[in-house]
What we know:
Layout lengths: L7 H8 L4 E6 L7 H10 L3 E5 L2 H8 L9 E5 L5 E5 L1 H12 L6 H27 L3 H29 L13 H17 L11 H11 L2 H7 L2 H14 L2
Parallel strand pairs: 1-2
Antiparallel strand pairs: 1-3, 3-4
Amino acid sequence: xxxxxxxxxxxxxxxxxxxxxxxxxxxxxxxxxxxxxxxxxxxxxxxxxxxxxxxxxxxxxxxxxxxxxxxxxxxxxxxxxxxxxxxxxxxxxxxxxxxxxxxxxxxxxxxxxxxxxxxxxxxxxxxxxxxxxxxxxxxxxxxxxxxxxxxxxxxxxxxxxxxxxxxxxxxxxxxxxxxxxxxxxxxxxxxxxxxxxxxxxxxxxxxxxxxxxxxxxxxxxxxxxxxxxxxxxxxxxxxxx
Length: 241
């Protein structure tokens, strides 16, 4: 159950840097790539609790809205604070880690770019999962690769170039929008296969976001782990990308 108290004590608990962030999600990247990356970059204690499909029916009713991811803030006092919904979790972690820019306008821009990428990738993942059969899935993917994805690429390449193609959407520092895009690029590249739409040659500004994040030692170390590779393999097996 979500703790809805607004006491100052709870607010202090949420902001404490020695909380353990416990992310509950399936054992693939899915829609949790940005959340996992943000947790790893934060330098704060975290753990990933994998939910397997065989156990999901029993666990589903215990989540706030009947789905994952769910983030549990495990405090030193023993109090556990629960947060659901992808955008809410990403916003919460971004606020904690200073990933929302330097002022209100920068924050608004960052949220705009983040929302655009979130909408695209959520639409893709949900449509794949909900496709009733393989024929419908192929039809959707064809339309996605011919319409939705090119529109996203064109817009984001333009905005990133306007910011100097420096690997960031806003200014010259890492934001949750950068992490969101970097976390989905490899899946979009894999999805397109031989129909290359995202590459160093075609979309240098978008690829600069990915390259910039990959220079971070914590992120590079995470991508090299067996756990990350397992998530990647299961992602391809379940979603096809």
